[in-house]
Amino acid sequence: DTGVSQNPRHKITKRGQNVTFRCDPISEHNRLYWYRQTLGQGPEFLTYFQNEAQLEKSRLLSDRFSAERPKGSFSTLEIQRTEQGDSAMYLCASSFTGVQYFGPGTRLLVL
Amino acid sequence: TQLLEQSPQFLSIQEGENLTVYCNSSSVFSSLQWYRQEPGEGPVLLVTVVTGGEVKKLKRLTFQFGDARKDSSLHITAAQPGDTGLYLCAGARYSGGGADGLTFGKGTHLIIQP
Q1: Are A30 and A98 in contact (CB under 8 A)?
Q2: What b/e string do you get for B62-71 counting C-beta neighbours within 10 Å, with b at 16 or more?
Q3: Cα–Cα 20 to 30 A to B111, which of A50, A51, B36, B55?
Q4: pLDDT tens, position by position, A85-97
Q5: Beta-sheet pairing, A101-102 with A88-95
Q6: Binned average pLDDT, 10 residues per bin, chain B of 114 residues
Q7: How far apart are CA A24 and CA A26, in angstroms?
Q8: Residue B95, SS3 per DSSP
Q9: In chain B, whose CA is at the least distance from the CA of A59?
């Protein structure tokens, strides 16, 4: 399967802990996007990369959030000092021509 | 702030009925994309509409993009239980040769009862 993959699929953590998620995009897709989706809502854009450059960050991306794509391939999203309000599905997508293809997401629960 | 309004938010109908869901925006987008999402999974792309007035068909699904490229509709004919899911519309803008982050509506939760 050559689709977008995300790991882990589920993460339970205690408030105050740090978590890191990984996204592997479709091979040769130059753009990679991160979104957050809470219950009953559509996905909300967080940030995106073109190759290794982070081109845009949403105001939703607080200082506790950091994303990297060091070699222009996979990306990581880290949340420091997690809060209960961070509980959500974190989605990754990649594109080459403009159409975005999504991974299965990582569901985070902060206790 | 969500710039795309979807309606209805919830819809439950019997198998075999027809339905239409709407996606309206106060802004113009370069394109609108429709996705379907099942619980615990990521959105799956159904179609992209680009040209004002464009109509695209995908089996029993018909997608239309408004002339002003600010609204879209999804019509399903003879709905089947397998159509059950969350339908999301998303507006795209382009820069630097690619798409910026998508703006999503809240989605329409569709249940087709056998």
Answers
A1: no
A2: bbbbbeebbb
A3: B55
A4: 999 999 999 998 7
A5: antiparallel
A6: 84 97 91 93 94 94 93 96 96 82 94 95
A7: 7
A8: strand
A9: B1
Residues B3 and A43: their CA atoms lie apart, in Å, by 13
Tokens of B42: 């990521």
Contact at CB, A98 and B31, closer than 8 angstroms: yes
The DSSP letter of residue A32 is E
Burial B15-39 (b: 16+ CB within 10 A, else e): eeeebebbbbbeeebebbbbbbbee
Q: List pLDDT tens digits, range A31-52.
A: 999 999 998 899 999 999 999 9
Q: How far apart are CA A10 and CA B89, in angstroms?
A: 26
Best residue in A100, A106, A109 for a mutation probing chain B (most B CBs within 10 Å): A100
Cβ contact B95:A27 at 8 Å: no
Residue B42 and residue A105: Cβ atoms within 8 Å?
A: yes
Tokens representing A69 are: 């794509």
Q: How many CA atoms lie within 13 A of A10 on its CB side?
A: 3
| A25: helix, strand or coil | coil
- Give me the phi and psi of A6, to 5 degrees please: -135, 140
Q: Do A42 and B107 touch (CB under 8 A)?
A: yes
Residues across chain A: 111
| Tokens (6 digits) for B63 | 């997608």
Shortest CA distance to B56 belongs to which of B37, B31, B39, B78? B31
**Measured between alpha carbons, how far is B57 from A64 in angstroms, rounded to an integer?**
44
